[in-house]
Protein 1
Amino acid sequence: MASGEFWNDTQATFPEDITINPYLLTTDSTHLTNFSGDKKVKPLVLASGHMRKKIRAKPSSHAWLPCGMLPEGKFPKLEFKSPAQAKLLPGILARRLYHLCMRHILQPLILYATIPKKMVDSEGLVRKEILRLAAYPCDLPEQSLICCLAPNCCTCCTAGTCQLGGSNTCKSRSGSDILSAIHSIRRKFPDAETWKFAMEAKNIGLNGVEEPWWIDFPETDICKAVCPDVLHGLHKAFTDHCATWNTNIISKLELDSRFRRLPKWPGFRHFTGGISKISQWSGKEHQDLQQSFLTVIAGAVPPEAVRATRAELDFIYLAQYQSHTDSTLL
């Protein structure tokens, strides 16, 4: 769904006077209280795919429309039959609550997924538009929650937790496959309660949700719509994994010393105090780290680690291209 060819083929299925308006959705857990209460909420925001990426990326442009606040309840007052239920059932209920709220908020979009709606474009012209979900960028836990999958299960293929990183090719996963698996559990256990249904779903890699919000959008394959965002999928992943692996080889003291010895240069951030004491990274700081990290570790780690780090950095920069050709994809 990220290619222009896909949207051109989809547009060809409609009459010439109807335009597809691909929209984007995103959610992320946000703390409401930092010192007491431990309250969280998921803001749901929407943006049109007709807007340029650089416009959507600017907070001052107000390109993202707030649609609602999704609660993250812990259900502390419920009584459970066993310690196992008291430990797992609140999370199962929270996931079901998320999908229930999403179905309620997105209900107005169901009609306009098949029936055109008159909308005003950027030039002031009125057009008939069909609304289709183009992408749902989010971090990995959100992807599993949206696709009703157990943690660490791949949203693109049927690989389980133990198969991730393997060399074997797995069958691709689709939203219809997930719905078929959910329906098979209900057919096998028609009278199963929430706990029983969730335990059976867990055995086949699902998270216990019975009615996903995207069941009302049959024209959308949710497994192709969800995608990692740049901050979590690229920048934060590099800092949390690749940078940590190299730090374990060099040691924090030596790595900080190497960063401090780098000469100051215009356009490059100088980490005067090193990087080990930084607890909260911004997107710009992640990018500044990637600019000089390969230079810092050169000569201090084995050549294999340098090549692996360079390969990941190459992928991070290639993944941020606005468009790709056959040569960049090979």
Protein 2
Amino acid sequence: MEVSEAPSFRPRDRRPDALGNFLVLPNELICAVLELLSPRDVARLSCVSSVMYILCNEEPLWLSLCLNTLNGPLEYKASWKKTVLHLENVSYERDEACRKPLSFDGFDSLFLYRRLYRCHTTLDGFSFDNGNVERKGKITVEEFSSDYDGKKLVMLTGLADAWPARRTWTLDHLLQNYGDTAFKISQRSSRKISMTFKDYVSYMKVQHDEDPLYIFDHKFGEVEPGLLKDYSVPCLFQEYFVDVLDKDKRPPFRWLIIGSQSLLLLGMLIQL
């Protein structure tokens, strides 16, 4: 007696009914179009169909909506959607307590999966130094100029060992001394966005953004001169030709860069 295998069950693809004429567009193009809408229009569109509900509730979309509308201090509210709702003066606490996020079968997206994967990938599987780059500790200016400068790669070690920043630039110390200080934030738009250090740390500890925000401030020394006392320019790089220019004409020459582990990973993935 032959036993036939039961047919595997596969949920019906909900894209045709949910997207209509937009079915011809790939998910990545639909997501790009959604970024051009206002937050309130995106909220309305999420009520149209199940697939639109999924696409309109993606965190990267709400990050873009936030950066497109904000111009000034940024206060992160546990998620980018909540942050935008706060900016729009829309109350969400009561609604959140009564309603759980909806889930649907019959929908899969390689584009959304790849983005989710990049958001949650860690550095554990990456190697930073496999010995191909020469390491050099104590080195004179003459030796660096004759053997390495513009000639070959070298990893200089020990240059920052005596910096006070090696001891004082911890999250706890920086929060205690600069928690209320606003620093400029890197982002994709031309808008000037800043966050207080304590708000940025709150964001950094919980975020899983594909393209995370990070502090990138070239005027940190003017904002907090005390930070300039925590480091010094290594002897190998004391010569700075921009010094011949007037101070108001000099291009940016120092930056404070602070970010999460995923920021470093993002740089590695871009290089790959």
Protein 3
Amino acid sequence: MSCRSATHAGSWYSSNRTKLDSELSNWLSSVNPSPEEGFSPPIKGCKAIIAPHAGYSYSGPPAAWAYKSVDPDGIKRVFILGPSHHVYMDGCALSTQTEYSTPIGNLPLDISTISQLRATGWFTDMSIETDEDEHSIEMHLPYIRKVFEGYNVSIVPILVGAIFKEKEVAFGQLLAPYLASEDTLCVVSSDFCHWGTRFQYTHYYESAAQVHSETHPVYRLSRLQTPPPSLSNFPIYASIEALDQEALRILTLPGASGSAAEAHENFAAYLRRTKNTICGRHPIGVLFGALGQLETSREEGEHSGKAAVVKWVKYAQSSKCFDISDSSVSYASAYVLF
């Protein structure tokens, strides 16, 4: 038996079992959507969620909205797709461990599924150093353990590298049959806009009317330039939200994009245009690659599932930015049916 340590416990989230369990319970119980939001969790048939991975003081409350969507009944296997923050990879990697530790109880890995994926030749293996350095997967483990408390569930962690859209599609096609299984849930790990000079990203919309403009030049705020007068009427934090909400609209199904494949294409175009610093863009791309494959299979009569639904249920920012000296990270949570 080999076990990955909970290396970020005690810093990114509490290492105290009682305190962490209480925090998770409180965040989940605090999810109280209004009737007009059309969100009544848990969502029967929830097949995937998208949720953030920052320190729990920031991402814990918004992530709860995604995890509240999960109906644990019948789920035996949880895929976790997380972006690689520390190691460059032109592909995806699997864990070599048999168990992942959390302060509220360990999670066994699905060794059989991981062996099948490894046998395809498409995946590399993470070293234990890479595995334990990465936070994008670990930050979801306590929530998974909590939501599946009392359930026999195993996990399939996959670290997703900086892959082009074509590879996102290819990995999505490979994973689609696994994700379509009735006993499987997929967790996609992503924060949204990382704004500020420390992130080297200071995109600014001068008005809400700019949001959908593909011809208007991108405005980059700088310490060396006089701030635009529009900041008094359209502050930076509002521009950041407009930027993120543009991505959420593209990724909503059913929605303006039409199909999952079209949403994937539109999302890739949006990223090229805005350069938005969505760290989990490639895991999201792999999920939409899988949804596109399942759409094709359903149209050809090979898959009996329903058309994909992606509904965003929570958006938050770590802080409000008013000037170039500020910084923030955005968080968004969604559930997925297919």
